[in-house]
């Protein structure tokens, strides 16, 4: 099952395609103009975009370029033009694959699954990070510790995910500010300290008696399985 966004203005294509893709277990949203499609792609963050090249307000290739400037979402282009030059152009413009009209839902579904398998975090492998008894799942944004759910704010989740992706490594506060808070220069270290202390409390530990989160004085913080430190 994937969340697909179909950008297609032709109702005679769109309606049956939506139905067929839903029957195959996908969640399908649709847009009928390039600008609505661009907005939906950015706001709804689908797993994959199916993009018609002939749209009323903008050429699909232009939309592909705009989308590629701001997003890495996989894109399959649906083209009525079965011509080599056109296909090379859309692949060069950042499309992951293409289908030539008329195409069946079965073909599109197979190509979508193939593209998603190659996409980072799509299909396999499971992107869940496991450090000791801690499981951090970026898809559902859920965290469990020794099997029990831990309720985190979005920022705490991002902070924990960043650290859990680098187990055993010291991560500087500057890096956390820039990667998690997206504050490129300076910023207040206190922000990081405060969130780390909230995170510690939720994980049932403290700076004095750390289990997973170890402060490295003057440098940053390291997340490590308590089993690793013995
Ligand atoms: Ca069209």
TrEMBL record:
Coiled coil: none annotated. GO terms for cellular component: cytosol; protein-DNA complex. One of its GO terms (biological process) is regulation of DNA-templated transcription. Residues 126-225 form the OmpR/PhoB-type domain. Keywords: DNA-binding, Phosphoprotein, Transcription, Transcription regulation, Two-component regulatory system. Residues 126-225 bind DNA. Residues 3-116 form the Response regulatory domain. InterPro entries: CheY-like_superfamily (IPR011006), OmpR/PhoB-type_DNA-bd (IPR001867), Sig_transdc_resp-reg_receiver (IPR001789), WalR-like (IPR039420), WH-like_DNA-bd_sf (IPR036388). Pfam families: Response_reg, Trans_reg_C. This is DNA-binding response regulator. It comes from Micromonospora musae.
């Amino acid at each position: 099952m994937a969340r697909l966004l179909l950008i297609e203005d032709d109702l005679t294509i769109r309606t049956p395609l939506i139905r067929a893709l839903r029957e195959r277990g996908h969640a399908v949203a649709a847009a009928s103009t390039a600008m609505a499609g661009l907005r939906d792609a950015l706001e709804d963050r689908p797993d994959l975009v199916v993009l018609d090249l002939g749209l009323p307000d903008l050429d699909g290739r232009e939309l592909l370029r705009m989308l590629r400037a701001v997003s890495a979402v996989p894109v399959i282009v649906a083209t009525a033009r079965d011509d080599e030059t056109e296909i090379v152009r859309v692949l060069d413009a950042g499309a992951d694959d293409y289908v030539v009209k008329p195409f069946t839902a079965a073909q599109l579904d197979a190509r979508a699954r193939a593209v998603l398998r190659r996409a980072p975090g799509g299909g396999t492998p499971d992107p869940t990070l496991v450090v000791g008894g801690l499981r951090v799942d970026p898809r559902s944004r859920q965290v469990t510790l020794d099997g029990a759910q831990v309720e985190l704010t979005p920022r705490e989740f991002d902070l924990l995910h960043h650290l859990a992706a680098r187990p055993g490594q010291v991560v500087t506060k500057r890096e956390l500010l820039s990667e998690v808070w997206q504050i490129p220069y300076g910023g207040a270290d206190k922000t990081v300290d405060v969130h780390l202390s909230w995170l510690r409390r939720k994980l049932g530990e403290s700076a004095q008696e750390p289990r997973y989160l170890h402060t490295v004085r003057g440098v940053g913080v390291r997340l490590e399985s308590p089993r690793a430190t013995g």
